[in-house]
Amino acid sequence: MTDPNLTHLYFLLDRSGSMQSIRSDTEGGFDAFMAEQRTQPGSCRVTLAQFDDRYEEVYRDVPVADVPPLSLQPRGTTALLDSVGRLVGDAGARLAALPEHERPGVVIVGIMTDGLENASRELTHAQVKAMVQRQTHEFSWQFLYLGADQDAIEVGTSLGVAADRSLTYSRGRVDAVMAATSRNVGRARAAVAGGATPQQAAASLAFDAEQRRAAAD
After folding, report:
1. What is the pTM of this model?
2. 1, 2, 7: which is closest to 191 by C-alpha?
3. Is 166 helix (H, G, I), strand (E, B) or coil?
4. CB half-sphere exposure, 207, CA atoms < 13 A
């Protein structure tokens, strides 16, 4: 069986040119997120990828205690579909290659962007949605979609992300969206450490009304 005390957190972060106005807020919010995860029970490993019209894996399978400060250098356009597909495909292949007892019991994929798709050349919405839904239904991966100044529920569901795991935030509220995400991820990890199944713990990842208001104010 998979390791129930191990969480692998995958984070796909938009670094397109429009992120420049919230670059420092995003760096600070992400670093605070990682700092809080270091205090949670159980083991956690992190993979970070950034994208504009190109996809870059910044680091892979790093213990949360060793995650470096985020350095974001905005540029380019927004190839969201190709980037989500690349991350999901790469992560799935790597996990499948591991012995089952080394695979994480909890897999959480966070997608954070301030822009809409405008540069993908390889994948369609339907293809990405099918990929995300397959990993969710067959392997119990959990997906979060964080979208600035857009209808994140509409965009997230078009990618296969559940509506209650999609959060709209204002550009000035990066701290609130990162705090909400960190809290929910921490609660899910704590639930698993306390004996809950990953499927039971997944309910902790849903954003509540208070978190939605704080992110939108």
Report:
1. 0.97
2. 7
3. strand
4. 30
How far apart are the C-alpha atoms of 199 and 92, rounded to whole Å?
A: 18
For 72, the token pair is 């974001």
| Residues 163 and 209 sit within 8 Å (Cβ to Cβ) | no
- The number of CA neighbours under 13 Å toward the Cβ of 26 is 28
Which amino acid is present at 70? L
Residue count (the chain): 217
CB atoms within 10 A of CB 15: 24
Is the pLDDT at 137 greater than 90, yes or no?
yes
Please state, in angstroms and rounded to a whole number, the distance separating the CA atoms of residues 12 and 58: 10
Q: What domains lie within the chain, and their CATH numbers?
A: 3-216 (3.40.50.410)
* Sign of the CA dihedral with 75 first, then 88, 92, and 45 last: positive
The DSSP bridge partners found for residue 144 are 110
Nearest C-alpha neighbor of 21 from the set 178, 172, 168, 145: 172
The pLDDT tens digits of the residues spanning 35-58 come to 999 999 899 999 999 999 999 999
The closest alpha carbon to 152, from 171, 166, 164, 172, belongs to 166
Residue 71 one-letter amino acid: S
